[in-house]
Fold these 3 entries.
Entry 1:
Amino acid sequence: MPTHTRIRMFNTKDTYPNQSLDNDLCQAVRAGNTVYVRGQIGTDFSGKLVGLGDPRAQAEQAMKNVKQLLEEAGSDLSHIVKTTTYLIDPRYREPVYQEVGKWLRGVFPISTGLVISGLGQPEWLMEIDVIAVIPDDWQPGKV
């Protein structure tokens, strides 16, 4: 029996055709009762960038992705225990954190925020990755 489940596997040569990459990755991994979600950006799962030049809109799309990936892993936003947010400009902190805060109201995760010099593509303004748990007695849709 596998110790973990890989969710939405992909290869970087398909995801980043403008770069010479060839890595096998996935969007999330469920290992036991822990879910690790890869850094999510303002691109939907079909590869379309949402919110060119708009950090709040990119954060909204990133959180839609996080929500969907957690649900596919058998969890949900309420079980997030840690977030890490990456910004390419400190001026994006308020719009990004305000948007993320809407999605995580009442969750109270621990959070790390970083300002970095750049992300994988120049149009990406922010990225967020999360770690969530799945309580032993939890069932999707159960409050």
Entry 2:
Amino acid sequence: MAKYFDVHPENPQPRTIGSVADSIRSGALVAYPTDSCFALGCQLGSRDGIDRIKSIRNLDDRHHFTLVCQNFAQLGQFVQIDNDVFRAIKAATPGSYTFILPATKEVPRKLLHAKKKTVGVRIPDHVVAQALLAELGEPLLSSTLLLPDEEEPLTQGWEIKERLDHVVDAVIDSGDCGTEPTTVIDFSGSEPEIVRRGAGDPTRFE
């Protein structure tokens, strides 16, 4: 049965955030809010977490997982960025964007795109997500909480608790979350490619 954490949207309770972070370090899979929609998150190296996310979302090996980072310094440890791309991403973060970039050796092989050796990264503009990332001190391995055969992500913490009670370990609820996933930009080629148009304004990358 999943633990349910009611967190203040503007002043997240440090003790609660600390408790969630401890559970993630111990292998928990959590549902948490971001600036686009709810996401599933686990520790970076958790094989069990990866497998559970794949099972919940019915994902295949081609899925791009996302490393949700606290800040640009952290993001830079996990992906390779040249100066032009650096400036473009820096101007758009934090925000509702996911960027696909060549991964560094810090990223577990299981998370890489099989052929391209890329990974998704993002920096959310969300108080609760940022508090959790700060407490963890490392990125959260994440995927949008979009269930198979459903067109929109779940937006209510209580509904997530009700529907995923036996497959996640914790639900963080800080009020309504959006229904629009991030805008995804692939920077692994010679030109940026808009892979998905979502909550972030894609025109700056066109």
Entry 3:
Amino acid sequence: MALMDTSYIFIALVFVLAGMVKGVTGMGLPTVAVALLTLKMPPLEAAALLIVPSSVTNVWQLAAGPALYPLWRRLRPMLLAVCVGTALAAVLVGAGNGARGGAAWSGAVLGLALLAYGALGLAGWRWQVAPRSERWLGPLAGVVTGALAGVTGVFVMPAAPYLQALALEKDDLVQAMGLAFTVSTLALAVMLAYQGAWHAAAAGASCLALLPAAGGMLLGQWLRERMAPALFRRCFFASLLALGAHQCLRAFTD
């Protein structure tokens, strides 16, 4: 019983921290939650816990933006490709779970994704996508994002860098990320339900996780007014880099 209580406290603290990061930066809830939860559980089990907190916070984020329909029209090829990529990942994960070391390679992919995201964030690297390139680069980014989400439960790579490269206005960018992450979360939920990982118990636990996540978001919004966002972002990306290195080390040494 004491072990179960410790697990509940750990999960609650993870979602408080993940919600705080999203409150300060506008993103990062699923990334932080999955990265920390996988210290105690497989990536897709962690992903099942974040479905409700991620869906609610992302819908809130996209609904607060200025122009949802034009963004939907512009990003529709990418969003549809996210669903395709997640479906492809369902096949890969099913095959990997049937083989020895399936959990290890899933953890390795998660570690590499966190390393890439953390390194890009710390480097401050920015790129721009020409309008003529969106026709093929958007679907490519969507397929890769969906595939990584289906394997790791994290859906920021390469969607977040791609959206940042579209030269959107600040409010449009926040709304675009909310839209992309909402579609990614729903596609992931369908995949988990298909695999039997999204059931009544998982849904109930995910609903409970919304409470500490919301509390963390409120704390993060309070902190955003009292600290330099640039400093917080550097700490955030440095932490992802460390967690990614830990995931890779554990995957390749177990």
